[in-house]
């Protein structure tokens, strides 16, 4: 029995020794791995010009994707039948001024059956709904009213993140240009990269500005029309005035033709006149 217990204790001791040996070996491996990474980082700090781009790829970006509020582009359309197009247009112009809005792309059409005015209003987003309701009050009949909303929050987040990344890369390139670019080749290479990233930054900034303007100012397309009562014209009246017009045109055309014949034949007329004068003088003699 004692021999059996001693055997168990011996095996337990062996297991414990092997366990601690495994742990110490694993820690040693991790330490060696950390040392290896540290050595790589030290080497990266002394990279030659050919490794500049590789170094820049290691830039850690922490974009701020937080947007204070949703970015929404609002637009609407109103088609209104009104009593007087010109007066209603003047009233709407006065109303838009009260909301810091303005009118653009105005087009006026006047034909035999209706007058129509089409224009676009740009209004600050906070006044969109109240201005839409105010304009609707001028209508005899609201034929069409639509409101569209486009969520561009995701585009804002994406473009903002890309812009922040490009700005950090630009900063790193500038640091490389100041501290690590020594030869002419290195300087030219880094400056070319800086020029390229600057173009991308300006494009992203332009896109953000465009989206910001679209969000800040909503648009309302307005169609105002006024129906003109149909007036029937008698066929006899049409025929008389048509014939009168045709007669005047024919007479004028005939007069033009006669004048052109006289102008073109002036030499013949001159010879005839000279011949008549010569004949009269000879006859008197």
Description:
- This protein has 285 residues and is an alpha+beta fold.
- The protein has four domains: 1-46; 49-64 and 154-216; 72-151, Alpha-Beta Plaits (2-Layer Sandwich); 233-263.
- 63% of the residues lie in helices and 18% in strands.
- The protein has helices at 2-44, 52-56, 85-98, 128-136, 153-179, 184-216, 235-264, 266-284, and strands at 72-81, 102-110, 114-124, 141-151, 217-227.
- Helix 5 (153-179) packs antiparallel against helix 6 (184-216).
Index terms:
285 residues, alpha+beta, Alpha-Beta Plaits, five-stranded mixed beta sheet, 8 helices, 5 strands, 63% helix, flat
Query: How many angstroms does the end-to-end distance come to?
Result: 186 Å
Main sheet record: 5 strands, mixed
Alpha carbon gyration radius:
45 Å
Q: Could you give the order of strands across the largest sheet?
A: 2-3-5-1-4
What is the annotated CATH architecture of the largest domain? 2-Layer Sandwich
Q: Structural class of the secondary structure composition? A: alpha+beta
E-strand count: 5
Average pLDDT number:
77
| Proportion of residues in helical segments | 55-70%
């Amino acid at each position: 029995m004692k021999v059996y217990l001693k055997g168990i204790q011996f095996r337990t001791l062996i297991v414990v020794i092997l366990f601690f040996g495994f742990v110490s070996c694993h820690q040693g491996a991790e330490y060696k791995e950390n040392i290896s990474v540290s050595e790589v980082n030290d080497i990266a700090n002394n990279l030659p010009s050919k490794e500049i781009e590789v170094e820049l790829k290691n830039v850690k970006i922490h974009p701020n994707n937080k947007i204070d509020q949703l970015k929404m582009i609002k637009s609407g359309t109103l088609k209104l039948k009104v009593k007087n197009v010109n007066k209603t247009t003047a009233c709407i112009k006065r109303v838009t001024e009260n909301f810091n809005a303005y009118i653009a792309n105005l087009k006026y059409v006047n034909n035999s059956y209706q007058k129509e005015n089409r224009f676009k209003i740009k209004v600050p987003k906070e006044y969109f709904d109240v201005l839409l309701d105010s304009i609707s009050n001028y209508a005899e009949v609201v034929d069409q009213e639509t409101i569209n909303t486009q969520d561009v929050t995701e585009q804002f987040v994406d473009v903002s993140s890309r812009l922040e990344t490009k700005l950090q890369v630009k900063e790193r390139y500038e640091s490389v240009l100041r501290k690590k670019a020594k030869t002419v080749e290195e300087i030219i290479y880094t400056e070319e990269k800086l020029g390229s990233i600057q173009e991308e930054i300006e494009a992203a900034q332009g896109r953000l500005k465009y989206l910001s303007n679209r969000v800040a100012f909503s648009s309302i397309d307005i169609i105002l029309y006024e129906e003109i009562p149909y007036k029937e014209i008698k066929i006899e009246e049409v025929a008389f005035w048509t014939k009168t017009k045709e007669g005047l045109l024919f007479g004028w055309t005939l007069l033009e033709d006669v004048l052109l014949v006289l102008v073109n034949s002036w030499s013949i007329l001159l010879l005839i006149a000279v011949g008549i004068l010569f004949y009269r003088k000879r006859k008197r003699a």
